[in-house]
Amino acid sequence: MWDSKESVYKIIKPPQVFKPRTPPPTAKELRDRKVAKITLRLKLMMRQKSAATFGKPDGHYKPCARKFLKKHSKEPVIIYEQQRCTQHVKRKPDVPRDRPVHGRVKILDFIKMNAEQMIHSRPYMPKGPKKMRRYLLKKTFGRIPTYLAARLKSAADQKKKGKDTPEERAEDCEHEGTRKLDEKERITMMNNLKLKWADTNARYQRLSVALDLESQKRMKEIYEENLLQLEKDVSLLSRKVILVSNSAPPKIRREILPPQH
After folding, report:
1. What is the tens place of the pLDDT at every residue in 186-200?
2. Taking the domains of the chain in order of start, what are their residue ranges?
3. How far is 252 from 169, CA to CA, in rounded Å?
4. pTM
5. Which residue ranges have biased composition labelled Basic and acidic residues (predicted)?
């Protein structure tokens, strides 16, 4: 039969075969490979170290008489989870077969037991100092302490001098040309000052935010000065005792009285 080298199968391309994709190695597999690589390297190093100088010692290549293939050495060893107990364990006594007597009750006299316990018990001895302190034999027994004596002395000195508090001393203060301000007069003056402060504050709040002109700036400064002075006057009148001069100061007297020609 005539054999021709030409064939249809040479023209048709064979189907492309893809290799199956292997899954990537897990972390455990990578760790195991790394450990095996390190152990192999260590074994090689130890093997080279043993014969690093002049080869292995004499008799090293001889077979050992104790290392021979033993019977059942290559069979898998079964490890039981729970080994058998070889020790002898004492048994507990059997349950009594006799039936218990019905209605038997053990009567205890607790009053008598408590009395016997108290009779035979020892008295309680507190753990205190061996030598008891006798405060009656002290030199300073019955005397007044020094700090109390100093306080009593200071109180007696204040009584001799006069009034105790500065307010009471101010009430009896008699300066020439002065008088004590009456309570009603003080309250009315304080209320008038508060009303004046409220009126000035309302005018101050009505000022514009942007102060472009010099007159507006000056007006703001005047209001601030007036408010500050009114607050000082109110704080002055809030005292309990206020002394007022009977005669006006010379500066005000010149303004009130007409000039003498």
Report:
1. 899 999 999 999 999
2. 170-256
3. 30
4. 0.33
5. 154-168
